[in-house]
Amino acid sequence: MTEKKLNILVTNDDGVNAPGLLALAKEMRRIGEVTVLAPDRNWSASGHVKTMHRPLRVRRAVLADGSQAFCSDGAPSDCVALAILGFIETPLDLVVSGINPNANVGHDVTYSGTVTAAMEAAISGIPAIAVSLDSAEYSSGPFDFKPAARAARKAAQMLLKKGFTTGTLLNLNVPGIPEGEIKGWKVTRQGQRIYRDELVRREDPRGKPYYWIGGEAPTGVEEDDTDYGAMKQGYISVTPIQLDLTDTGALATLQGWKWPR
Predict the structure, then answer these.
(1) Which of 16, 107, 132, 156 is 20 to 30 A from 145 (CA-CA)?
(2) Domain range for residue 188?
(3) How far apart are CA 156 and CA 46, in angstroms?
(4) pTM > 0.90
């Protein structure tokens, strides 16, 4: 009997021409049939977008290695939705999003187009992984995405072999250090991200104000069992992210309040 080939979607939030996407696609081709459908431009920090008030367009693209891909004028989560809803006719076995050139840890996951693309797959019950590399903030590279791509392939093989809870995705963060210096893997919880955002006010040539959200690069609280802590200690961090954001600990408290009739 011929073994069924895995059908894998590779996407990202940095755009179809991003080198991290190509590294990821190459590694995923080792374990299955890969279709690339990614945004036609950068959607970093876009969050979980669903485009409903304009048409979405898809066109063919060619990656740097000459392989065929598709790109859309929609957001990362739109690209995944397009694939699931029928643009890719064969049902998907796995969605892998990345490789983002900066870490996505702690509160980053709510902003990250990389992570929310994987969330879109998880909503439909499809196994999904978001992959990020912890390179220096605001660095323009070049980056070595190969260690993160290999880590993504190993995580995918483990996920598909063991199975996992529907509605949960894996958030993978790989230290930006030489592969030989990576200490191993840690299963972690979301950590605490510390943002140092500042509002920068400027004026255009006509004297009208405009604003940038600037400030120093974010840091985090380095705890052993968290995504940020593990990554900073030289480990690959694997965090299960669920879509149910309910604060179950607060349910009893709220139920004890005297709510208006």
Answers:
(1) 107
(2) 7-245
(3) 25
(4) yes
